[in-house]
Amino acid sequence: MLPSNFFIDIERYRTMKPTTDQNNSLNHAFKAIHDDDVPWEDGLDNNLLTLPPGIQVKVFAKDDAMKRVDMKVRFPPGYVEPEHSHKSWHSIVVLKGRMCVAGKDLRPGDYVFGWDELHGPYEYPDGCEVFVVFYGRRNPAPMERRKTWRTCKNLETRDKGR
């Protein structure tokens, strides 16, 4: 069952004034952006994600008023995203490579949804590129240290012909 505040309050969205702050690139306006026009950045330099070092991000749209960010994230081979929780939701679509989570081997086109409950770890054995939309507060909720750096084990693998 989805939380009651899962869907955006449409009336609130319609009445919001467009943002002009340079840190808010969404600005509530139509956008069409070529992938090559957005540079890859170090994933830890922009304070959007609190993950171990090694990731890169391309931020396509960010709006602090809406607490929303749309971006690509690139994980190097062997990267493990720790088990975590946060108050925001995220929708993830695998674009390239392989993402292993919850006993599933996800490939391009596959989807992941995370919300206010413990999820992960996510493992990227061959490297991976994903498109992710965050909505809500992105900082992870406090959790027990012993749960933070678990690794995935005994993951199922899909048919190699995929």
Protein described:
This protein is mainly beta and 162 residues long. It has a domain at 40-140: Sandwich (Jelly Rolls), CATH 2.60.120. It is built from two helices and ten strands. It has helices at 10-15, 145-148; strands at residues 41-42, 56-63, 68-75, 79-81, 89-97, 99-101, 104-106, 111-114, 122-124, 128-135. The strands form three sheets. The chain has a six-stranded antiparallel sheet with strand order 1-2-3-10-5-8, with no helix packed on it. It has a two-stranded antiparallel ribbon with strand order 4-9. A two-stranded antiparallel ribbon has the order 6-7. β2 (56-63) and β3 form a beta hairpin. The protein is globular and about 40 Å long.
What key attributes describe this structure?
Jelly Rolls; disordered C terminus; six-stranded antiparallel β-sheet; mainly beta; 162 residues; two-stranded antiparallel ribbon; globular; 6% helix; single chain; 31% strand
Q: Give the distance, in angstroms, between the N- and C-terminal Cα atoms.
A: 31 Å
**Helical fraction:** under 10%
Task: Kindly report the average pLDDT value.
Answer: 75
Low-confidence stretches: 5-11, 20-26, 140-162
Q: Kindly report the name of the CATH homologous superfamily of the domain at 40-140.
A: Jelly Rolls
CATH topology of the domain at 40-140: Jelly Rolls
Spatial ordering of strands, largest sheet: 1-2-3-10-5-8
Please tally the β strands and state the result: 10
- Please identify the top-level CATH class of the domain at 40-140: Mainly Beta
Structural class: mainly beta
**With helices defined by DSSP (H or I, 4 residues minimum), what is the helix count?**
2
User: What CATH architecture label of the domain at 40-140 applies?
Assistant: Sandwich
Task: Tell me the overall shape.
Answer: globular
Cα-based radius of gyration, to the nearest Å: 16 Å
Portion of residues in beta strands equals 25-35%
What can be said about the biggest beta sheet? 6 strands, antiparallel
SSE string, helices as H and strands as E = HEEEEEEEEEEH
